Amino acid sequence: IGDKRVWMKMAETNAELALQQREAQHANQQVRLNALREALDLPETTERIECFDISHTMGEATVASCVVFDKGNMQNTEYRRYNITGITPGDDYAAMRDALTRRYKKVASGEGKRPDLVFIDGGKGQLGVAVEVMQEVGLADILLVGIAKGEERKPGLEQMFFPDRDVPVGLKKDHPGLHLLQQIRDEAHRFAITGHRAKRGKARMHSSLEDIAGIGAKRRKSLLVRFGGLDGVKNASVDELAKVEGISQMLAEKIYQELH
């Protein structure tokens, strides 16, 4: 009985410590959010923040991510990934347009929660795409901010672009608001890249060019670069495949047969 009491007491203590830790973390996040609001001149009602990022390898297996910060924490059950198809491989603007349109058409129609602020991982160009999409879906009043990586892509040198401001805003490296922005942006990047790697791995597992006799790393790369990814190789004709350096007519026919 004595041992049982000891274990119960330890469990209670651990639960209390965990609760205190969560409360402290939440309080810290609230400090960061307040600092971000003040630094960027955001309304005090800004609570729900969504952030988008794009990930691909030379245009292959493009995935967009949307992560959500709300109620003082990252809300991972509300994260979404978007498989991007039907665009020119490597066109990040088109990929962002596709993801934003799919997300906010639903929000505009009453599905899902409306964000107070949307971060776009990218500079003026990506922000411009976001502005156009929000106008098209009828959500032009949602605040948009483009996050551009600074010189040499070093953390702490980020610049924030606003649709109605000519000059970007930068925050000091130790600014609590910048730390929150970086946390949300980095989470969007992580979620996008893990989705991209899974999609790329699945595509390569099911129809890997390297499984075809006569296709090594060099020829595989030549094919992917020429056709903008595996989907492009699949859609190419035998004659088109044979025009790639190192691919004979016989090998082109073999590739075509293996992928169809």
Task: Report what the structure shows.
The protein has 260 residues and is of the alpha+beta class. It has two domains: 165 residues, UvrC, RNAse H endonuclease domain (Nucleotidyltransferase, domain 5), CATH 3.30.420; 51 residues, DNA polymerase, domain 1, CATH 1.10.150.20. Helix content is 51%, strand content 16%. Strands 1, 2, 3, 4, 5, 6, 7 and 8 form an eight-stranded mixed sheet that branches. It is globular. 30% of the residues are buried.
What is the topological layout?
Elements: H1 2-39, E1 49-57, E2 60-70, E3 73-74, E4 80-83, H2 92-108, E5 117-121, H3 124-137, E6 143-148, E7 159-161, E8 169-170, H4 176-207, H5 217-227, H6 230-235, H7 238-242, H8 249-258
Parallel strand pairs: 1-5, 5-6
Antiparallel strand pairs: 1-2, 2-3, 2-4, 6-7, 7-8
Helix pairs in contact: 1-4, 2-3
Provide tags for this entry:
260 residues; alpha+beta; Nucleotidyltransferase, domain 5; DNA polymerase, domain 1; 8-stranded mixed beta sheet; 8 helices; 16% strand
> Could you name the CATH homologous superfamily of the largest domain?
UvrC, RNAse H endonuclease domain
The pLDDT mean sits at 89
Low-confidence stretches: none
What is the number of E strands?
A: 8
Order of helices and strands: HEEEEHEHEEEHHHHH
Structural class: alpha+beta
What distance lies between the first and last C-alpha atoms, to the nearest angstrom? 69 Å
β-strand percent reads 15-25%
Share of residues in helices: 40-55%
Most strands sheet: 8 strands, mixed
Question: How many distinct helices?
Answer: 8
Q: Would you state the CATH class of the largest domain?
A: Alpha Beta
At CATH's second level, what is the architecture of the largest domain?
Answer: 2-Layer Sandwich
Q: What is the CA-based Rg, rounded?
A: 24 Å
CATH topology of the largest domain: Nucleotidyltransferase, domain 5
| Structural shape | globular
Total domain modules: 2
